[in-house]
Specification:
mainly alpha; 279 residues; MetI-like fold; 2 domains; single chain
């Protein structure tokens, strides 16, 4: 390799590494800001928003935990997250199995309709959903909000699981059918265990979205005792009073459960995304 070619290769490698490092720092900056702000006093925050705190100020966590009924909010968020993720996972797996391994009239059309729902933003459905929930008397109930979250999670969940099921060799399923397995037994004893990476990926992604969701929780869970953690943290800010350090402390605490879920499933995460990402 000539010297000029070697220089070009080195420059290209340097630019790629610089781009990756820059993107990493950019994505980690909000995390840094949240952590350092959570341990500052309000005076320190006003004086220096980006620097490190002079000392660890733990009173912000007391404000976040006590001021907005933190544990009630935490329980509400946990109920909605677990309920909606579990329900959407069951429905998505059953539907994906039908799309991937069964033949029925209109399968491709129905699958394409479900895919098209992935591009519809939830905000455009707020009014019709609210009218429907009022008519069914499901406003300010866990059941109604879980039902809405489940419907919003299903398009992506069905898409991912369908494509992952298609990667499972058909010979395995045919061998099971020769041994006398029914469709339900093939689904439960073969497809589900082999789809662990995709299942873990769905749990992490869907739990992250539901846990951090604010708009639907704010509209459909209006009673004070039913408000979620994100709504409670947002309530730390009012028109004439903004306690950023206490808000960051609440967000830091709220981040811990999702980080734990991700750490638990990280070994399957990339495999699940790549395995179900190709149509």
């Amino acid at each position: 390799m000539r010297g000029s070619d070697r220089i070009l290769v080195w420059i290209g490698s340097f630019l790629r590494q610089a781009l990756v490092i820059g993107a990493t720092l950019l994505s980690l900056f909000p995390v840094y800001f949240m952590i350092v702000s959570a341990f500052k006093t309000r005076f320190e925050y006003i004086e220096d928003k980006w620097g490190l705190p002079q000392s660890l100020y733990w009173a912000n966590f007391d404000t976040a935990l006590a001021g907005e009924k933190f544990f009630i909010r935490f329980a509400n968020s946990s109920i909605l997250t677990v309920g909606s993720v579990f329900l959407s996972l069951i429905i998505a797996c059953l539907a994906a199995y039908a799309f991937a391994r069964m033949e029925f009239y209109g399968k491709r059309t129905l699958f394409n309709i479900i895919l098209s729902l992935m591009v519809v933003p939830p905000v455009v459905m707020i009014v019709p959903l609210f009218v429907a929930m009022v008519r069914w008397k499901l406003v300010n109930t866990y059941q109604g909000t879980i039902l809405i979250y489940t419907g919003l999670l299903l398009p992506f969940s069905i898409y991912l699981m369908t494509n992952f099921f298609r990667t499972i060799p058909r010979e395995i399923i045919e061998a099971a059918r020769i041994d006398g397995c029914s469709s339900l037994r093939v689904f439960w004893n073969i497809m589900m265990p082999l789809s662990a990476p995709a299942l873990i990926t769905l749990i992490v992604v869907n739990a992250l979205w539901v846990w951090n969701e604010l708009l639907i929780a704010l509209v459909f869970m209006q009673k004070d005792e039913l408000k979620t953690l994100m709504v409670g943290i947002a309530a730390l800010r009012s028109r004439n009073y903004v306690d950023i350090p206490a808000t960051m402390a609440g967000l830091l605490i709220a981040t811990i459960p999702i980080v734990v879920v991700y750490m638990f499933g990280q070994r399957y995460f990339i495999r699940g995304l790549t395995g179900g990402a190709v149509k």
